[in-house]
Amino acid sequence: MFQRLLKNWAVQIFLIFVLYYLTGRLGLLLALPPGYASLVWPPFGISIAALLLLGVNRWPGVLIGAFLVNARHMESISNLLLPLGISMGNTISVIVAALLIRRFLHFPKRFYLEREVILFLFLAGPVAALLSASAGVGLLYLNDVVSQKNASMNWIYWFVGDAIGGLIFAPLALMFSTQSRRYWLKSVTKVLVPVCVAFALILSASQYLTLSEQEKQSAEFTRKAEFTFNVLEKDFNGNIDMLESLKSFFDSSTSVTRQEFRDFSSTLHSRRPEVQALAWIPYNQDKPETLRIEYIEPLPTNSQVLGTDFGTHPDRQALLKKALEKRRLITSGPMNLREFDPQARGIFLLLAIGRPEGVLLEVLRLDGILRDLTDVLNDPSYRVLIEDVTQSSNRELMVDTLSGGGRDFHADFRWSSHLEIGDRLWEVTIQQDTSLRQGSAFNTAVFLLTSLVFVFLICTLLLTIANRIITVEEIVDEKTQHLIDLNVQLKKASETKSEFLANMSHEIRTPLNVIVGMSDLLEESPLNEDQKHYVDISKKAGHNLLSIINDILDISKIEAGLLTLEKTEVDLHSLVNDITEMFELKAREKNLELSVYLSEDTHSIFMGDPTRIRQVLSNLISNSLKFTTDGSIRVEVMKNQTEMEGNLIFHVSDTGIGIPRDKIPQLFQPFTQADSTITRKFGGTGLGLSISKRLVKMMNGDITVESELHRGSRFSFSLNLPWLRDVPAEGEHTAEEISQVPTGPAAEQEPLSILIVDDTEDNRLLIKAYLKNTPHQISEACNGRQALELAQKQRFDLILMDMQMPVMDGFTATQKIRKWEQDHQRPASTIWALTAFALKNEIDRSLSVGCNLHLIKPLRKADLLNHIQKLSEERHQHR
Fold first, then answer.
1. What pTM did the predictor assign?
2. How far is CA 113 from CA 180, 192, 470, in A?
3. pLDDT tens sequence across 349-385
4. Which of 63, 145, 323, 328 would give a disulfide with 140, using CB separation of 3.0 to 4.6 Å?
5. Which residues pair with 388 in a beta bridge?
6. Which pLDDT score, from 0 to 100, does residue 502 have?
């Protein structure tokens, strides 16, 4: 159903629209200033590929996606028409490219020849981009969005962005489609990675170009903004100086005539067209309300104001009174200059003088200030705003150089500063819209066109190479698949072998558990000498068989990758001494000298797996005892100073039969011994050295052998064990050792209720025999279901649970018991798994379902009783 839905015409149009819109938004992030085009426009190539794959009649998806990407402002219908026209031009160019590729290349098919690859890239890139760039920039120019000077640069941006998008993303989109890949490009990875690298290079270049252009524009803007502000500040300081000069003129004269005022003023305001008037308003203390303009210049343009009494205008009167009171420069806010020009706005600068007493007035036109700023900037991309911010809550706009309110202005850069004029505070803000900048960047155009040529050549080369090696790849793929199938078969055979060995060891351990256990029980009963000898032989045979099974299980676990190493503290000297003590009796029986050398610099605590170290060293000592009839065996442990890996090295040397030189390479192979007669004479499976070598490798070490026939052998293995700390001197104890010193008599053992769950009656009989002389109460169950029913009727202190049983296995039974205990808020019974499976995953599984301990068959009586004794003591202590 989902496949049918994807083939629906409307659904495909919707998918093309969504893909175009999302990749278009991504492309806008790569837009170069002024922002109308991107160095890489991914939707262009993706659209061409979509129409090639799905059909040209899916073009509405391209149109809708392009329209929504371009329609950034929708306040009016006129703002909708421009993006619609650009989207139609883009859609037409994509349709034309798809039709031309289908016409001249008979798409879909493979492209083996360079001519076909070049033609495809040429049509999907430059040809289609030529149409879209011309249509888009032409519409922008006709709508006065870009100027004639900027049109060529914007066309280059647009053309390069669409062309690179077609060159890179059309092949990529086709390669990811199942249909086209089958006919065209099979070598996806050989094209995909290099094309992505080329795309990354273009992105990096785009970002570098954008950032460098922005930094350049920012520096230029800041420089010009500061220059404009300095000119503005200098002009206003000049206007203030004009008043100060006029004040000095009055202060230096006892009286100033009209002609003297005219002559002096004309030298001041003639150079400042923004000055509407300079006036003198005398103050008569007898008539304080009369504030009449007595002198004003230039008189021809301000004659109508001469004699006007500002005392009759409250706002003017307040300013004059403030100037007379403060005796410093007073500045008005922006106001209508109704006395001078009803259409004009401006500001008053007032300065009071003491002799003769009165006020000097300077009238500045805001439109004059605007003309000055326009002349200074001479750039339509800049905008200057001057606001009166004396009262922060009431900002008044004084000057705005943006001519006409209908033109959109997007401030890409902004700079502001404050200007103090008299008692007023002005904020001067300078902005720039980079899209309105004039001129073109020649270097940028060269870079863009060079990038286009580079991408075209790279894509041509990659696609040609990829298609030329398709035939070779098919042959290589066929051979490779054959090898893969063969490897899978070998791996499966190895896994089957490992699984078989693990299952066989489980099946053998189950009866062996009874054999070894019954031998232990029989040994405890009254026997005569012959019977004791027979039991001893039986026990030895059982232990030898158990040793073989353990070796088989170890090798199967290693090959299956299920053997993991323990990480715990290892007292190296104590471990080695314990191991050698085990073999001292056997050595004395054979009249062999067993000696140990432990270097002092290894008398430390290391981090490692003591069980596996014991297993390797025991195997080597056991082999030496087996193959040495007279002489000595020496065990040495020291810091590793050889070329072998690891920080510690162990040597086991003997004076035994030795090994032929040509047999040494076979020693560490599984089920292999130096001579077939050795097995008949000395026994063994040939697994010990193979297991030892693999264990040493797992502990980041190595193992070697030096041997001479009839002279003896020396086995050496190195380990990499991290050092933890030195062993305390005799008489000293660590905090952990002190905490483990017994502080009182051992707790008394108390009777426990124990449930034995096992489907084999012999195993249940053996466990009952082990517990015969204990005070514990024993119950039995032959499967998991019976155990669950008994656990619900009676709470047991300990449940010994076999995990492999019919009806209900131990895993399920343990889970159900734990859930029943939780649901009924009963205290949890102690459950120990008792199974012949010894793999780590089985141990982890039993613990995960709720078992407290995992015991492995065959289980010795002493081990079981010790575990139960500890449990009994713990229960006694918690009472």
1. 0.42
2. 17, 19, 12
3. 999 988 788 899 999 888 888 787 777 777 778 888 8
4. 145
5. 396, 426
6. 59
Q: How far apart are CA 145 and CA 134, in angstroms?
A: 15
382 sits in which H/E element: strand 382-388
Q: Is 257 exposed, middle or buried (0-12, 13-18, 19+ CB in 10 A)?
A: exposed
The encoded tokens of residue 79 equal: 């703002």
Distance CA 497, CA 475 (A): 33
Count the residues in the chain: 879
CA–CA dist 534, 519 (Å, integer): 10
Q: Read out DSSP for 508-555?
A: HHHHHHHHHHHHHHHHHS---HHHHHHHHHHHHHHHHHHHHHHHHHHH
418 close to 428: Cβ distance less than 8 angstroms = yes
pLDDT tens, residue by residue, 304-343: 888 888 878 888 888 888 888 888 899 988 888 888 888 8
Cβ proximity of 32 and 206 under 8 Å: yes
**Cβ burial, residue 236 (10 Å; 0-12/13-18/19+):** buried
DSSP sequence for 239-266: HHHHHHHHHHHHHT-S---HHHHHHHHH
Please name the helix (run of DSSP H) or strand (run of DSSP E) that holds residue 498, with its range, or none: helix 470-524
- The answer to which of 143-147, 466-470, 514-518, 633-637 has the lowest mean pLDDT is 466-470
CA angle 721, 726, 730 (to 5 degrees): 135
Q: Based on the number of CB atoms within 10 Å of its own CB, is 4 exposed (0-12), middle (13-18) or buried (19 or more)?
A: exposed
Residue 298, number of CB atoms within 10 A of its CB: 16
